[in-house]
């Protein structure tokens, strides 16, 4: 089935009052095609980890884009924190900037390198501070992708 469905009424799901994310009746289709997401209800508590499982094309990225505010809510409603951080599937690190410079990209303030080093140590890349993104391994690139999120 090419759809994600989840009921918000499950006993283990957070109540509306305590939820950080509330999705109600979210339906998304592209053009005149079938619904990728159909009447999706979902509540996520602050600090809760949620894994989306589904075959390729089942709508996982569409839901994530919606929660990140990158895809419009056409039908249904979505309540989410004003500020969200996204780690994209590809690392999105700028190849012409060193790893540490990517971490503090767009941030003002002094001690940028110092702050970047702290973040990189947190994701196990303390030894690649001055490396170029393209020299990171696949896993290193993925970890580096978390950096800008943690650092922002
Ligand atoms: N911008 C778009 N325009 C048209 N179709 C799209 C667009 N984004 C996603 N789709 C379609 O929606 C379906 C779900 O895609 P996606 O959310 O990327 O799935 P998943 O991440 O689970 O692999 C796929 O059939 C995909 O082709
Ligand atoms: Mg995807």
The value of Rg in angstroms is 18 Å
CATH fold title of the largest domain: Rossmann fold
Helix content: 25-40%
List the strand order in the largest sheet. Answer: 2-1-3
Structural class: alpha+beta
In CATH, what is the homologous superfamily of the largest domain? P-loop containing nucleotide triphosphate hydrolases
**Can you tell me the overall shape?**
elongated
Number of helical elements: 4
Oligomer: single chain
The number of E-state strands comes to: 3
What is the typical, i.e. mean, pLDDT? Answer: 85
Helices and strands, in order, run as: EEHEHHH
Alpha-carbon distance between the two ends: 38 Å
Q: What does it look like?
A:
- With about 150 residues, this protein is α+β, with helices and mostly antiparallel strands.
- The chain is built from four helices and three strands.
- A hairpin with a 5-residue loop joins β1 and β2.
- α3 (about 110-120) packs across α4.
- Mean pLDDT is about 85; it is low at about 1-10.
- The structure holds adenosine-5'-diphosphate and magnesium ion.
- Magnesium ion binds near residues 60 and 61.
């Amino acid at each position: 089935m090419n759809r994600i469905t989840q009921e918000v009424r499950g006993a283990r799901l957070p109540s509306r009052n305590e939820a950080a994310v509330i999705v109600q009746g979210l339906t998304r289709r592209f053009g005149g095609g079938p619904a990728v997401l159909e009447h999706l209800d979902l509540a996520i508590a602050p600090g809760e980890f949620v894994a989306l499982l589904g075959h390729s094309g089942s709508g996982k990225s569409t839901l994530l884009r919606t929660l990140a505010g990158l895809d419009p809510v056409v039908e249904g409603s979505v309540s989410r924190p004003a500020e969200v951080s996204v780690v994209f599937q590809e690392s999105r690190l700028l190849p012409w900037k060193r790893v540490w410079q990517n971490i503090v990209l767009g941030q003002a303030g002094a001690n940028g390198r110092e702050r970047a080093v702290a973040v990189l140590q947190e994701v196990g890349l303390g030894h690649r501070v001055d490396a170029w993104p393209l020299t990171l391994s696949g896993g290193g690139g993925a970890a580096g992708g978390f950096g800008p999120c943690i650092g922002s």
